[in-house]
Design brief:
The structure is a single chain. The protein is of the alpha/beta class and about 325 residues long. The protein is about 45% helix and about 15% strand. It is built from twelve helices and twelve strands. The strands form two sheets. Strands 3-2-1-4-10-6-11-9 form an eight-stranded mixed sheet, with helices on both faces. Helix 1 links the parallel strand 1 and strand 2. Helix 5 packs antiparallel against helix 7, helix 7 runs parallel beside helix 9 and helix 10 packs antiparallel against helix 11.
């Protein structure tokens, strides 16, 4: 692999894109994590969505010639700004990194090797750390105990039960073929994109060693959906789009109950909160959505899922009560 971009007119192998709005709290960590990569053949795009804080001043402190800064004329919104990053990228491979997340030092090297060595691999990702506002590692989210390259169908079977991907490297040519992120899906636009790639027949590479960190904090966009009680309905919208894109006779339609299970738990939690707060408007809305999910997945096919759910919820509660949740050792 090339050591750095000695010729600035040369097309970089990788485009790492940071879409950002008012990111002065964490963007320095994101920038440092990219510039400290073992793989040096990349460009770093910062696409600012009309920040009103010190974001651009912080970025201006960095004099690395691989950094390109773009300032939108108006705030495009979260997903449209992600798509603008893709449109501006020059690299053969693209990584979209939210300003509050960070890459581990080997991320670009590990992911790009998988894509360069096998032209049929369209997407690469890994397990990841969950970190807090101070950057402390809280726990590890791991999809599998071994590295693997999955067929598109195998990857979709995994994606159908939830979104295990918090940072991915994708071939730029895929977006020319399949399009950009769906701006109507907001919360699950990334998940829907990964499903689209898998369903198009591309292989998906997974690495057990974490290559990135996903940050949980009070201003996290994901949390705003939870506060607004939109989580389940947003995921359901994305699910319907994915399954509607398949033939009704596809053997992958059998994963509908698995996908429904992903959002069923969270929707039950929403319902409990609504009942406790005696918000009867939300109670009706939550019950209606639960009924829609069951009908969509198939009542008969959902029976085994519904029967198992109370035991799974009890098991999860017991793990929390007795401290069996996998926390990271303090010295990691």
């Amino acid at each position: 692999m090339i050591s750095g971009l000695d010729n600035l007119n040369m097309q970089p192998l990788i485009s790492v894109c940071i879409p950002v709005f008012n990111g002065d709290n964490f963007i320095r960590e994101a920038l440092d994590s990219i510039l400290n990569q073992t793989e040096k053949n990349f460009e770093l795009l910062v696409v600012d969505n009309c920040s009103k804080d010190q974001t651009l001043n912080i970025v201006a402190e960095y004099k690395d010639p691989r950094i390109r800064v773009f300032i939108n004329e108006w705030n495009l919104g979260i997903v449209p700004n992600f798509n603008r990053c893709i449109e501006l990228a020059k690299g053969e491979l693209i990584v979209l990194l939210p300003h509050d997340d960070v890459l581990m030092p080997t991320a670009l090297e590990v992911f790009s090797k998988a894509l360069v060595s096998d032209s049929e691999v369209g997407l690469a990702y890994s397990s990841y750390y969950i970190i807090d506002e101070r950057g402390k590692k809280l726990y590890l989210s791991s999809g599998d105990a071994e590295d693997k390259v999955m067929t598109g169908k195998e990857a979709f079977a995994l994606l159908a039960g939830g979104n295990p991907i918090q940072c991915a490297m994708v071939r730029r040519e895929i977006h020319a073929l399949l399009g950009l992120w769906d701006e109507n899906l907001r919360l699950v636009s990334d998940w829907e994109m990964w499903c689209r790639i898998a369903l198009s027949g591309y292989k998906v590479a997974y690495f057990k060693t974490p290559q990135n960190c996903y940050r949980l904090h009070s201003s996290n966009a994901y949390k705003s959906f939870l506060r607004n009680n939109e989580f389940s309905s947003e995921i359901f919208k994305g699910m319907k789009k994915i399954y509607n894109s398949m033939s009704s006779h596809s053997d992958l339609q059998k994963f509908r109950p698995l996908s429904a299970k992903w959002i069923f738990r969270s929707q039950i939690k929403h319902l409990i909160v609504s009942i406790k707060s005696r918000n009867w408007t939300d109670v009706k809305r939550d019950v209606d959505l639960l009924a829609k999910i069951v009908r969509w997945a198939g009542v008969i096919r959902m029976i085994p899922v519904l029967l198992k759910m109370p035991f799974e919820l009890i098991k999860r509660l017991a793990k929390r009560l007795f401290g069996k949740f996998k926390r990271l050792p303090a010295n990691i």
